[in-house]
Structure formats: structure tokens, C-alpha cells
Amino acid sequence: MSQTGRIKPSGSARALNEAYDTALLDLDGVVYAGGAAIAHAVDALATARDGGMHLAYVTNNALRTPDAVAEHLTELGVPAEASDVITSAQAVARLMSDQLPKGSRVLLIGGEGLRVALTERGLVPVESADDDPVAVVQGYGGPDLTWSRLAEASYAVARGLPWFASNVDLTIPSGRGIAPGNGAAVEVVRIATGADPQVAGKPLPPMHRETVLRTGAERPLVVGDRLDTDIEGAFNGGVDSLLVLTGVTDGAQLLAARPEHRPTYVDADLRGLLTGQPEVTEGRGEFGCGGWTASVTEGEFALDGEGEAMDGLRALCAAAWNHAGDGACELDAAKVLGRLGL
Questions:
Q1: The Cα angle at residue 238 between residues 233 and 242, in degrees rounded to 5
Q2: How much is the pTM?
Q3: How confident is the model at residue 2 (pLDDT cuts 50, 70, 90)?
Q4: Looking at residues 268-285, what average pLDDT do you find?
Q5: Residue 4: what pLDDT?
Q6: What pLDDT score was predicted for residue 3?
Q7: Could you tell me which residues come within 8 angstroms of residue 205 by beta carbon, excluding any fewer than 6 positions away?
């Protein structure tokens, strides 16, 4: 379902794991953070899977191979096969193979996941701009990525070689907080060269194409923690989405979301897959959900009532998105979000 013009979160009388055949789950900030499972994720995913929902794991992180990701998930208590994992490394490798002859040498700035994906597409990774590459590809290389690797990419891009990036997420969640992502490293090369890469990862079409090709999903639900990748990717693909608040997005960012960043559903964590979603009602400029009503009055948010915090947030989303229309709501939400403990 297209989300064009969304002005409030949707409701669902059916549990989401029954209403959709496949969950396209982001990993960092949704299933795990810093290598450890996020609270409630393991049990919620087990229940959804036992109920017949297909679980696919769609990540912009190009560092690890699908085998390594599946092994990690299984160790956390989320059984997975490599075929259940779709990475931005796979998406960018397909994008490159569509444009470059088989056997082409490409300068690799990234990790093992990207190396394996390139090789599977018949491309030959090289380490230096002096190894006669015909293109450059950049993916997340982990915390030990060195300045010299960014310089190598800059040398090659400055010579006019086509430049590809697995994704441009500026940040990634970790066990210690928010860390720089591949997008931050891409910006270094962009500043040094003045060039722009072709990007494959979420929220862009190559990643959606890769996901559909590999999962065969007919009624997919994108599940993520980021507005600018997961939710925008669902918007671009014309499919529904569930935002969980276990990663980088907080309540204030959600209320300020532009139309392409507004999720279909909002919940605290992956337990939201197992339930229906309450309707948000509208009347006389007020929006209600559960025991809460929200509105915008004289340029300020008003929130009345009591009940579940997520219901209050859903009502506030409707008030904010209606007020903003096709733009971003710029009202101060700190006070009302504080009432909800968000």
C-alpha cells in the first residue's frame, strides 16, 4: 500500500504477523545492537515465525556475509539461513554487474561481506587504485577502517572511475551508543573528490529490488528503526512499514517526519508484530488513540488523558502530521513526550 499523504498511523484489526506474509526486518537497532539481542526480539520473532510469517533480514550493513549474519542470528536464538539475509553488499554488487562486464576489476573499500558479494557477481576485487580497477565500491568496513583506505578510494574516484556505495547511513547503533556509519566514510571521499556515488542500499530502489527478488514476498511489511532508510525505503517501494523505537529514531524525530518518513504503524519493539494496531480517531481537530487525545492549539501540542505511552504517541503523530501537511512539523514536542516517558 502506498503511504503517499499519510496523516496518521494506521490501525489493524489483525495481528501484523497474520496480516502480512513476510517481515522484512532491519537488523541493527531492531533485532540486535552491539551484537546483543534487543529486549523481546528473540521471543517475538519466534512467535511470528511459528505463526507462519516468513522472516527475512534486510540490512544496509555490508560488512558481514549472509552466512555470518545468519550464524550470529542463530546464536542469539533467532534461527536463520544465509538465504534469509539480504544485504546492501548484494544489492550494490548486482547494480555494478548490470553495468560492468564480467571479470571487471573493482577497487574494494569495505569488508568481507562486500568482497563475497562482488565475487558472486563475477567481479574481481582489488586493493589499490594502481591495480587498474574500472570502478570503485565503498561499503562499511568496520571500526578498524583506516584513513589510508579512504585516501585510496579518493585517488581512484578523482581519476574519473565510476563510484558505487553500498549505502549512505551516516550512523549505526552500537552497544555503546551511536557510531559513524558508511555514509560518514562516503562523505569523506565526496568532500575530497567532489563526486557523487551510485547508491544501492535502503531507501533506494536497488535494495528493494534485491529484497523482492530474493524473498518472493507478496504482502511484505518493512520493520525498521530508521526513518531515512527503512521507512523511506518502504515508502519508495509502495509497501507498509512498522517503526520500532529500539534504535536511532526517537519520539521527537517521528513527530517531525516528512510524508516519506511516516510509518504505517508505530510500536515500542518487535512485540508489535504480534498484535493488532489501534485506530487513531479524529474529531473537531483532536486525534484520539486509547486513552489519549492530542491536538495542536495556538502553535503548541496539547495532550490529554492517560494510558499506554504508545497510544499517546500515535495520537501525537496524527496531530503533528496533520499540522505539517506535506512538510515537517517543527513544533516543540519535549513537554508532551515527557508526559509519555519518551
A1: 60
A2: 0.90
A3: very low
A4: 96
A5: 53
A6: 45
A7: 236, 237
Query: Would the pLDDT of 247 be above 70?
Result: yes
What b/e readout covers 254-267, taking b as 16+ CB neighbours within 10 angstroms? bbbbbbbbbbbbbb
Amino acid present at 268? A
Catalytic positions are: 26, 28
Decide: 228 and 298 in contact? Cβ < 8 Å. Answer: no
